[in-house]
Each structure stands twice: as C-alpha cells, then as structure tokens.
Amino acid sequence: MKVLQLSPSQGLALLLLLLAVWQLSGCAVSPRLKPSDQPSVAGKTFVITGASSGFGRGVALRLAALQGNVVLAARRTEVLEEVATQARAAGGSALVVTTDVSSPDDIQALARAAIERFGKIDVWINNAAVGALGRFEDVPVEDHARVIDVNLKGVIYGSHAAMRQFRTQGFGTLVNVGSVESEIPLAYHASYAATKGGVMNLGAAIAEEIRLSGSETISVATVMPWAADTPFWKHAANYTGGTPRMATMDGPEQVVEATAWVSVNPRKRLPVGWKARGAVISHSLFPSLTERIAANIAHHWQIEKAPPAPPTTGSLYEPMQSGTTVEGDVRERMEREEAARKQSK
Fold it and tell me: If DSSP codes are grouped into helix, strand and coil, which group holds residue 95?
C-alpha cells in the first residue's frame, strides 16, 4: 500500500483546501459579543491569567468595555497596572494581582483577592501559557518541565481554585484556553502540544463531573485557537535555530472575541475560526494525514525557511520587558524576512 507523499507546499495547499470546504459549508462562524450581551457581562467578575499581553490582555479590555470587573493576573506588575488603567477608562473595574500560575500559593492568593474585592468569581479564565520550540531532545529537560508547570499544572491549580469557589457559591464558568494542538500535536512543539492535550482532557473530565453532580449553573469551556500572531512567539523558548514562526497565522482579534463570548455563553469545546474548525474536522477524519501535513508545514516554515536565531529560554523563567501588546507583529516580521531572503538570492 502506497503512502501519500506530499511536499510542504502541497500539504499546505491540501490542508487549506479542506479548511476552505469546511468554511464554505457555513459551519465556521466565529462567535462575537454583541451589545445585547452587555447585561451578561456588566457587574460580573472575571479572573484572567496571562493578562499582561496577547489574548489575556485583549479579553480583559473587551470585557471591561462591557462594564465587567476584571481581575488581572500575570508576573509583570507594571504592565498589569497599565492594562488596569485602560480597563477602567473603558468602563470596567480592575484589580491587579501579581501571579505566577505555576505557584499554587499564588493561585490561592489570586482567588482570595478576587473574592475580597468583588465578593464572588463569575468566570475564571486560565489563559497564561509559555512555549519551548525545537526538536524534543534539543530542548533542555528543565525547559520542558517549566512548560508543564505553567501550561498544565497552572491550569490545574487555577481550575481547582475556581471549581471550589463555584461549588461554594453555586455558580460559575471555567474557561481554559487550549489550542488546535489540543487535537493535532505539532512537530517541534512537543511539550506545548502535550500540555494543550492535557488542558482539553482536563476540561472534558471536569465537565462530566459537573454533569454527574446535577449542577446546571456551573460550566466549563475549552477554547481552541489556531496559531495566532501574539507575543507568544517572542516569549517562547527557542532551540530551532530559526526565528519563531508558523504559516497562515490568524490575528488575535477573533480569539479575543471568542474567549470573551464563551465566558458568558459556555460551550464544552470551541475551535476558533474556520481554520481551527476545519483542522479539527480533518483530524477526526484523517488523523495520520492531518498530523503529517501539519508536521511538514512546521518543518518547512520553522526549520527550512526561518532566518537564524540564537537559543533562548524566552520568558520561561523570568518575564520579558518586551511583548506587552495584544498583537505580536510576527506576520509583519515574517514578510520582512521573506523579502530579505528573496533579495539575497
């Protein structure tokens, strides 16, 4: 039996074709908050980890604009204060709590601070995440461990604190930010993909426990974005030898909107955008082929085409001063690098 052999460009074309078919089927509408959703947000308290940049910052400002109370958690206190100022200007209330999500004590302090200030927690959004890029054996084992500490153990700690509070008060929504890699593990992202698979299964297990308990007022949702242009790529540890990147990135806006939306309209799993939805469907139908295509694409863009870059631990152990916006400007950088590569030929 012959195995289908595809070049990276052919694989990308095939994957995009499958995704386009899914989009045209009419099933790929990304959810967005509407003005009519304001009563569902106003006055409610949202704990958001990883709120200093990327999706977390965007979600905090989006919810604040609808008069939500946002509890901002991350390691960069000064940046959080900046986000809080913007949130208040947008019409919301904001509380800054310096937090390393890999510390159970920090998570408990975060929960206490939110309750002391606002009296309850309506929604807890586990968004904080880090990455370590490179061949599995080239990434130091301590870096893999740190990714697990933040992306999986941090979500477990946050989910545990949230669920205990929800059981006490009788209601609440837990939102965990997973990834398309929760379904489709990507080459050179081994420990990151492992954590995102764990996040999805954690949410699914908690959802079943909620169902079995008979509760209809507690919910859990897992958001599954496609690769997005945020400061994640600047903050990632990198041992690939090239600048961090991925093909066909989405902007962060639709993920911000979807995460804010699902926090008041819970869904068990929410792939965001037509590419994410299509990839999940493709993987359910053709798992090996989809993983092979995805790996070829990652190899082509990250290993073969990326300009050289030195090894770095990124923000794994200490926060970085750079990368404080929602957008990461990775796509713009990739365009510049591609133009320079063509000129050098």
Answer: strand
Q: Tell me: the pLDDT tens digits for 220-238?
A: 999 999 999 999 999 999 9
Catalytic residues: 192
Q: 204 lies in a domain?
A: yes
Q: Note whether residue 2 is domain-resident.
A: no
Instruction: Tell which residue, 175, 153, 148, has the closest CA to residue 163.
Output: 175
| Alpha-carbon gap, residue 110 to 117, rounded angstroms | 11
CA distance 173 to 125: 8
pLDDT of residue 167: 98
Alpha helices (H) in 66-153, listed in sequence order:
77-90, 104-118, 141-148
CB atoms within 10 A of CB 205: 11
Return the closest-CA partner of residue 99 out of 126, 131, 136, 69: 126
14 within a domain of the structure (yes/no): no
**Core vs surface per residue 179-189: b (16+ CB within 10 A) or e:** bbbbbbbbbbb
Q: Is 47 left (phi over 0), alpha (psi -120 to 50) or beta?
A: beta
Q: Domain total for the chain?
A: 1
102 in any annotated domain: yes
CATH number, domain of 183, equals: 3.40.50.720
Q: Band of the pLDDT at 266, cuts 50, 70, 90?
A: very high
Residue 112: which domain range?
42-344
Asked if 72 and 87 touch (Cβ cutoff 8 Å), the reply is yes
CA angle 250, 54, 66 (to 5 degrees): 100
Cα Rg of the chain (Å, integer): 20
DSSP string, 9-76: HHHHHHHHHHHHHHHHTT--PPP---GGGHHHHTT-EEEEESTTSHHHHHHHHHHHTTT-EEEEEES-
